[in-house]
Structure formats: structure tokens, C-alpha cells
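Hi! If you just cloned this repository, the fastest way to understand the data is to look at a raw example. We've pasted two of them here, unedited. The first protein comes first, obviously.
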Amino acid sequence: MVFFENVQISRTRWCSKLYLNALHLTRFKPRKSHAFVVFLTGCVKYTYPNNNVIIAEPNSFLYLPQGVEFDFQPIQPSTCLVVNFHTSGKTDFEAFGANYRNITKIRDCMLAAVNAYKNQNIGYKAEIFSEIYKIISLVQKNEINDYVSPEQRKKLQPAIEHIEKHFLDSDIKISELVKLCGISEKYFTTLFSHYYQSGAKQYIIHKKLEYARALLESTASSVTEISEACGFSSVYYFSKLFKQRTGMTPTDYRRINIY
């Protein structure tokens, strides 16, 4: 069964960034809504009926279904993004947690929804609806990975290793990555987009922005300095990309994420 296929979102509830202290085991009554959750820090244990246990850690994506009770136990102080919503008709999906390769995109959608709910500008409800559907699409696309064999994935390894070492460089040429893998550019593009749900250039930008997030949260470096450290051609281009991905400027992101 494809996740949330043909399911319509009927209403959104609160969307928020939550800070969870390490507490004792808490039993929650059946949820009043569905929820998508992405954990940023910490560790939490969810226990559902039939011994369905979910351990949520940084970069975990969770689906929590409406109408099901569960036990909740923060193991470590944690931070997460939560988007609550209702659907038209009944859904039969069980609670689950997953670590997806496209978690950066999912987290960006979650952050945009939380930011839209917080600001409540004109059209914010439509914006949240849009981000929820994007999340559903990204979760569904993870099924594509089933069609990429381990042998095919191995062909991409030289490119991934090169990106991991050099993603902060100002320019990594796709032709260079193709040459490292020893396959045609067309085949490289097909494998990469299937397995990582993005092109190689977008994947590199995601890596840069992830590093920029970490610097914004943990250093006092200026936005210009961070832009240069991440290999962007200009601070304007960096700020534009950052806002496209997160719904916030780098300055706003730093303001609400220092804790």
C-alpha cells in the first residue's frame, strides 16, 4: 500500500517546534489528529499497541496516526518539528519511524509549515497544506529505492565519497563525478536521481545548507562568513537558497534556533 495514496488533507491543526525534557513514561490517549514529526536532537521512545516500538533520534521521520493511544518516553532532552492534520475518510496506516535519504527535504517542508503556522500571514493555511502534500510525496518516493540494486548503488559510491570530501568547494563539476563512477552521464543522472530523489547538483547544495545550518546554530560567524565557508558564490545567493529551503532567512533561522 502506497503511503497516503489518494488521501485528502481536510484540515490542519497546530504546527510547532517542540522542546522535550527527559521525563518519566507518559501514556497518551488516542490522538485527535494525524501527525508528521521530524526529530532534530535527542532521543524519544514511542510504544504503540502490539509492541510496535519506535525509537526517534536526530533525522528520524515519524508518522503518528489519529485515534491510537501510545506510550511516550523521552530518553534524552529532545527537539522536534510537529505538523498535525486531519484527513477526509479513514486511513489504515500504522505508526512508523524511518530514516530517509531525503530527510533534508522533508525537514525543510516541516520547517516551512511550522514557520507558516507561526507567522499566519495571508494564505498560510494553503501553504501548510502544500507542505504536507510535499512531505507525503517525498515519503512515497523512498519506495523508488527498491528498484535500485546494491550493485547499482555501488556504482555511485566514488561520486558520493568525492562529494563528502569536497562539498564545501565552490564548484564540483558533474562531469568530474561521472568520470569517477566510470559510467555514462545519462546513466549516472538516472541512478542518482532514483536513489537520492534529487540531482547531484541539488544534493551538493543540500550538503552545503546542512553545514550552514550547523554553523548558524553553533557559531557567532556572520552570515557572510558562513556563506563563504560553505562555498557559495555570494551571500545573496546563499540567503536566497536558504530561504527557499527553510522559509526563513539565515538571520531569522539563527534567532529561533539558538537554545
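Ok, and the second one:
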Amino acid sequence: MLSIIMTAIGVIFLYLMPNGITGSAAVVTVWVIFFYLVYDIGASFYNPNLLFRAMTTDTGERSKLLIGPRVWVMIIGMMGSGMAAIAVTIQAATGSYKTAYMILALVAMVVSSIISVVGWFMVKEKHVVEQDPEDKVKLTDFFELMKTNQPMMLNFFKCIATGFIWTFLFAAPVYYVKYGYCADLTTGAVDMTKFGSLSMVVSLMMLFPLLLGTIVANPMLKGFKGDFLKMHIFDLAMQGGAGLLMFILQILGLLRTSPVFFFIPMFLMAFFVGIDFVPGSNLSMEIMDYTIYKTGKDRSALTGVLEKFLEKAQSAVSSAIVGGVLIAIGYQVDSVTGNYVGDIARMPTMLNWMIVIMGLVPAILAFVGIMVIGKYPIDQTERGKIRAYIAEHQTKKEID
């Protein structure tokens, strides 16, 4: 609930800036930083797995709960690209683009917050374990979990590697299609019509495979008989295999013969990243269950802290990493046009390095993740014991 309130307030007031303060750069800076922090802290509080965990202990039911919000987020993401056009339409009536976007942000946040609050009241948490009201959550609990919760730490170290797969996959595809398929490497001339078409395909690769993967994830989990750990390892293996395929095709000289050879492994990697959302989230929820099973205390939020921290950290450094690796391989562009300004004769070598970044590095990260999570100690038998414990110790109120 606090997340809903804070994100709404943060977004609304980022755009609801009084005209009286816009003349002072210092006041504007403070205003923006403060309300962005309100928004970002609220967004950090958002962890629906905390609710899903308490609503059911059944893997299949948890997976169904995950699908709807995931697909809806993608749909909203697509709609977001049209926000500017809507604001321009409103501007025709208000005469001010600032006012138009303020109205748009206000309406969007009020409507979405009302829907979210209604949904919050409809949630029924069935599997809440009995707790001593005097036993408050302490900072030391977090450090205790780091020492005693092996599944949590293994998942954290796995995510350190696998969390960057997406970043490296999309580090350089636009540059590769521009100079691998659309440029004459003797003159540097680029076929902009072809480049525009292939750039659109690259953009689709960031959405369509994820959406498709999310849709098929639940039926696929049934094929693994609900064993999301095995499915998670399989997904990582497929991501790594697709990256390795892309790298091998480049080494063999086949990748540049047709964009099809480039987009197929790219699609497969993104597709299995999309699928992996379901087993990965189930893994997070099971770690919450495991904490209750081992300690008798519900410290679900604390077990998600490491993941949230890592997610924020990886998001923050992703752009810097992409820029750093492109500089490292010698890709120099004009700051205005975005065109390559280095020696065009070096481009074939740089194309090889781009595939190392997009294909080989994600493959290595995926296989590192498999080796780490392969030590995960919870199997199907232990999983049954955890569910039985939670069912036995859930609050009497919920049992009644």
C-alpha cells in the first residue's frame, strides 16, 4: 500500500511543478530530486512476490498469478510510447505542453492508484504463519539470513551473473546491423532504408520474445512437472546456448551473410529470458518459504532485499558498462550524428568484438549461473516439507 501511495505522489509532483519555482534552478533541482526519491523508494517497496507467496504455496497457482501482471506491464510499456502524442493532443486545448503533461500524469496516476488499491483490498493472504508480536524485524536479522540461508545467497550470486545477460545482449545490436548488414565497409556508406527496417526488428526483439516467453512459461512449467528449478536451469542453458550459437556463426563467417542468422539466436535468448521470469520468481518465493521453515519467522521482505538491491545496482551500471565496452573495443562515434568516426578498415574486427559482447559474454554468464544455482539445496521432497510446515503453522484466523 505504501508503495502505491509513494509512487503516485512522486510521479504526480514531478510534473505538478508550480510555475513560481521554475525561475530558480536550485529550487527546481531540489524539487525534482526529492519527488524522484519519493517515487523511487516507493518503487523499491514494490515486491508482489510477497503477496503471491502468502496467497498460495502451490507452484502452478503462483505461476498463474505472475503471468497477468507481467503481460500487463509490457502492454503499459507499449502504451507509454504514445504518451507524448496524447500530451500534444491535450496541449491543443490547454495551450501549454507542460500543463498537458501534468494533466496526463495526474489522470494516469489517479486511475492506476485507484485500481491498485482496490486490488490490494481484494488480496486474501491464506498462508501467513503465526508470529510473536514482540518479535520485531531487526537489521541483525538480515545479516543472520546472509549467514544461514544458503538458497538465498546462492540465488543472489547467480543473479550477479545472469542479471547482466540482457544488458550485454542489447549492448550493440543496432551497431552490428548498421555496419554488418547496411554499410559498405570500403566507403563507410550506410543504406539508411535497410538500416531503418533492421533497427525496427531490433526494437521488436526487446518486447515480442519477452511477451511470447511469458505466455508459454506456465504450460512449459507443467512439462517440468512443476519443478521450477530444473526449468530455470534449462532456461539459462538455452540462453547460453543461443549466445554461443551467435558467436560460432560469427567465427564461421555465416552471421554476416544474412540478418536471419543474427536475429534467430537473438530471438532465442530474449525468448528464454522471458520464459525464465516465472521459474525465477518461483525461486524467490520459495526462498521466502524456506526462511519461515528454517527460522519459524516470516522474514520474506528481508530475503527479497538482496535481489532488489542487485536489481537496482545492475540497472544503474548497465549504461556505463555498455558505453565502457564499446569504448574498449574502439567504437568511436560522432556525438551529434552517431556515425562511426574511426578507421573503417577496423570495422570487421569490431564486429567480431560486438558478437563477443552480445553472444559469448552472455553465454559465459548463463553457464556461470547454472554452476552456482546447481548447488541449490531444495529438491521436490524438501519442497513438500516446507509447504507442510507453513500449512501447519499458519495463523488460526486464516485456518478458521
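That's it. A detail worth noticing about the second one: The chain has a mean pLDDT of 88.
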